[in-house]
Design a protein that fits this description.
single chain; mainly alpha; Leucine-rich Repeat Variant; 21 helices
Length: 405
């Protein structure tokens, strides 16, 4: 009998314990729901101060990203009412973080970590706002800028990508360009950050050119790395890189030489386009009666700079001509050279293009055809001569070129 009573008591005790556990769980769930509801209400408030206050609390507790994630319904479409509300909340939260940074209410490291996590958001507006905040923080001190550069080796590709974009924004500011490129250059040889650092250099643009030129000319660097440096210089498109690329185009290393030639051609093409566009913009501004004198002057200065850059890029003509005429040169390099020579449009460039109209490489031949058509009316005389003096392929291509001028 005593054993039965003991068993019943044990059973009742177990039931009581489970009841308490269930009540605690229910209480916690209810409290959590209440907390989420309170957070969501504050984050979606029309009062900016209320939103900023809640974001500050969540940032300080390290729970902002979790709170924002909890506003989403992963089982519903992006257009569902809840997810639309979540999107508005996330956009406003990113804005609030920027407000709090401006007010100095968030410690620097906490601000950086929060903003980089916001850069992982699926929405482009949220990312853009977070990157704006990171730019501001990164420009506040050398240590902050070093921190952004350090993210280039982060294990998360979204974080690395955000760092690349932010460094490009910081480097685009004349006051920070050289310093940013210098800091990125310090990690470009680190295998854990090299790819991201190269992307950052491209994003930074012209201020990165001297550092890329240094590595391009360094014989101690691997051929693959030097080739990448030549490629980046071409992608940046700064005419100031022409002398360094001309030197690289004379190296005895085929891969480096080929990329240097391609980049020289790319710079000529981009410089020509910029010169044309800026010239048109300057003329338009000069004719606009509503344009402010300062805006007209700015457009004219840009046009002069672009024209000067194109003139500098034309120094590549001998190298591009030699590349086009050398059938041992890579097909891509010869084709790009032909297109660039069409933009240079000098008598010597025109003759080189016409001589290539009968090339055995169809890709090169078509590029030469396109190039000579870009020369325009000045090419009519030499093309007419080619109609009677060239071989069958040259004559046919010359006739086609004349038809396209």
């Amino acid at each position: 009998m005593n054993a039965l009573i003991s068993a019943i008591r044990a059973r009742l005790l177990t039931i009581a314990v489970w009841a308490v556990i269930i009540l605690v769980i229910v209480g916690l769930v209810s409290a959590n729901r209440a907390t989420l509801a309170r957070q969501t209400a504050a984050l979606s408030s029309t009062d900016e101060n209320v939103r900023d206050g809640m974001v500050l609390q969540l940032v300080q507790s390290g729970r902002l990203i979790d709170a924002l994630t909890n506003t989403q319904d992963p089982n519903s479409d992006a257009d569902s009412p809840q997810n639309q509300q979540s999107l508005d909340i996330r956009k406003n939260a990113a804005i609030s973080v920027n407000h709090l940074i401006d007010q100095g209410k968030i410690p620097t490291q906490q601000a950086m970590n929060t903003l980089f996590l916001l850069c992982k958001d699926a929405n482009a507006d949220v990312k853009a706002t977070a990157k704006t905040g990171l730019k501001k923080v990164g420009e506040q001190s050398d240590s902050n800028l070093h921190d952004v550069v350090g993210r280039l080796k982060d294990g998360d590709p979204d974080i690395r990508s955000a760092a690349v974009d932010v460094l490009g924004q910081i480097g685009g500011d004349a006051a920070f360009g050289d310093k940013t490129a210098q800091y990125v250059d310090a990690v470009i040889l680190d295998p854990t950050s090299q790819d991201s650092a190269e992307s950052a250099m491209k994003s930074i643009g012209p201020p990165a050119v001297p550092y890329l030129e240094k590595h391009l000319a360094d014989p101690k660097m691997t051929l693959d790395f030097r080739q990448k440096m030549a490629d980046l210089l071409g992608q940046i498109g700064a005419a100031s890189a022409v002398p360094a690329l001309k030197q690289a185009a004379e190296t005895d290393q085929p891969s480096v030489r080929r990329m240097a030639l391609v980049s020289l051609a790319d710079i000529v093409l981009s410089a020509y386009t910029a010169a044309q566009n800026d010239s048109v913009a300057a003329q338009k501004a000069a004719k606009d009666p509503t344009a402010k004198p300062a805006d007209v002057q700015k457009a004219q200065d840009a046009a002069k700079k672009a024209a000067s850059d194109f003139a500098l890029s034309r120094q590549a003509e001998p190298d591009l001509t030699a590349a086009l005429q050398n059938t041992a040169t890579d097909s891509e390099a010869r084709s790009q050279a032909a297109l660039a020579l069409g933009r240079i449009a000098s008598p010597a460039a025109t003759r080189a293009l016409i001589a290539t109209l009968g090339d055995y490489d169809t890709r090169v031949q078509q590029a030469a055809l396109a190039g000579v058509q870009e020369v325009g009316p000045p090419a009519v005389g030499p093309l007419t001569t080619a109609l009677t003096q060239g071989d069958e392929q040259v004559r046919a291509s010359a006739a086609e070129a004349l038809g396209g001028i």
